[in-house]
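Minutes, project check-in
Item: structure for the 391-residue chain
Input as provided by the requester:
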Amino acid sequence: MTLTDAQINTLTQQGIAALQKGEGAQARTRFEEIVAARRGHAGAWLGLAYACNQLNDSEAMMTALDRCLALEPANLHALLLKADSLHNSGQKRQALGFYQAALTAAGRLGNAIPPDLRPGLQRAQAAVQAAASEYTAYLRSALAGKGMDIAKSSRRFALSFDLATGKRQIYLQEPKCYYYPELPQIQFYDPADFDWAEAVQASTDDIREELRAVLREDNSFTPYLEDLPGIPHLNNEPLVNNPAWGAFYFWKNGPFVEENAARCPKTVAALESVPLPRIEHHNPSVLFSLLKAHTRIPPHNGMLNTRLICHLPLIVPKDCGALRCGNETRPWVEGKLLIFDDSIEHEAWNNSNETRVVLLFDIWRPEIPLEDRALITAMLEAVEAYKHLDG
C-alpha cells in the first residue's frame, strides 16, 4: 500500500484528534495505516505508541517507541514516554538511562523546549537526582561497612568520590595559547608547598598599607581588560574597558612598571624570592587586582598552563564572594594565599557592597624543569617576534 503525502497528513490529523478524545483504538488504526505504508515515519510510530498506551498495550507501545527512537534517537516525547513507562512498571534503573537521555536532548534545545514537555522533564530531573542520592548513599554504606569514612579520607579521594557520584564535574587544563603536556591536573595548590609563600603572607600588612595609599588616588587603576589597538574588537565581554575590574601594575605582561613600583617598594621587595616567569611580552604580571561591589568575572581560561596564578587577599569585605577554579570554590581570606591553575576554567565574584583587592602575580609551575622553562621562554618570545615580522 502506498500513500500520498496529503493522505498521510490527513491520517496523522485524524490520529491526533482521536488521541485527544481518548479514542485509542481509532488512533491506533490511523497510525498503523501510516507505518504500514512508510516504516520510516518517526512521527507515526510515536503516535502509535501513544495510542497503544491509551489501550494499555505496553508491549506494542514499547515496540513502537523503539521504532521511533531508532529513527530519531533524541525524540523527547518518545524518550520521556519510554522512561515513564519503565519507571511506572518498576524498572527504575532501566528508566534512568532514558530520563538522562531526555535531559541531555533537552539541554541542546535551550529555551526552545515545548511547554507540554516541561512536566516530563521535571519528572526526569527528579528521577535522576533521586537515583544519584540513592547511589551515593549505597556507596557510603558500602565503605562504612568496611570501616572506612569519607570524611576522614584524603582530600583527593574525597574529590574522586564526588566525581564518581556526579556531585562535581571534571575540569581539565585548556589554555588558550600554549599547552605544555603531562602536567598534573591540580586546581588549587597548598601554599605550604612553596618555600617563599610564608614570607609573602607575612608582608600582608605592609603591602596593604601601600595599597591604601594607591587607592586614595582615583585614577591609579585602569581596566584589567582593555581593547588592544590594531586588532579586531571581537570581544563582547562586559568587563572590557570596565573599571569594575581594575588593575595597578608592577609588571605588565613582562615589562617592569617603574613609576608604580616606586610608589610601593615594600610590595616589590616582598616578591624578591618568588619564581616569577621572565618571558618578554608575556610574563610576569604582578598587580593589585580590584573587583568592585556586585561585580562578577565570568568563567574563562588563561593563556598558558606553564604558570600558576597567586592571589594575596588584601581587602576582603564581609560576605564578599569567592574564586571558583574547576570544581572547587574558595573564599578570599586576608593574608592567606590562593594559588591556582588558571588554564582550568575559573571565575570570581564580589557580592558585597564594597571593593575587594588582591595582590595578583604569576609563578612558574613547580613541575616544569629549569631546562624546559628556558625552552618555553625562548619559544614564546619567538612566537611574539613572529607576530611583528611584517613591521
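Outcome recorded: The domain at 188-387 is CATH 2.60.120.330 (Jelly Rolls).
No further action items on this chain.
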